[in-house]
Amino acid sequence: MKHTSLIISLLISIYSQAQFTITLKYKRSKCGGAKNQDTTSYFLLANKKWIIQYPSKKIDTIVTDIQGKIKLPAQKGTYLLFEPWKFYHTAPSDFPMSLYDKNCLSSSYSIPDFTIQITSNKKYKISPSYYYIPCPDKHPCLRKDTIIPRIPSH
């Protein structure tokens, strides 16, 4: 009986520590007239900070490793990843808030950048499959009357 309870405890411990390793990727935008920039391949989102909302609604910070990987517990539920600017209700770039449409930003704060649905200890679905990084001067919430100064090329 003592051995049975020890084995059950060990199995529960192993199951509770089961994790998914998920690789986050992005596609590049062709910004500022860049020549020959690869806009079709996927690239790893290495060393990128995210705000994560767990299925329990707990909020935390998570950072991808150098290979763009994060580890999530194999707990069923929906995990939401947000860029920090959305969570902290700031601007998506270094541009001042005055250049953005505040209503547009407010509506984008609640939209996750990734949704990860874990359905079993072996299956998950991530949406979207890659992250699209817009050019800073093409963000959809920039006010239409905003003129972004161009940095001269040498």
Overall description:
By secondary structure, this protein is of the alpha+beta class. It is 17% helix and 28% strand. Strand 8 and strand 9 form a beta hairpin. Mean pLDDT is 81; it is low at 3-16.
The termini sit apart by 78 Å
Low-confidence stretches: 3-16
Number of helices: 3
Shape: globular
* Record field, number of beta strands: 10
In short:
This protein has 154 residues and is an alpha+beta fold. It is built from three helices and ten strands; from the N terminus they run αβββββββααβββ.
List keywords for this structure.
Immunoglobulin-like, 154 residues, single chain, 5-stranded antiparallel sheet, alpha+beta, 3-stranded mixed sheet
List the helices and strands and how they pair.
Layout: H1 2-16, E1 19-23, E2 25-27, E3 42-44, E4 49-53, E5 59-63, E6 69-73, E7 77-82, H2 84-87, H3 102-108, E8 114-118, E9 124-127, E10 131-132
Parallel strand pairs: 2-10
Antiparallel strand pairs: 1-6, 2-3, 4-5, 4-7, 7-8, 8-9
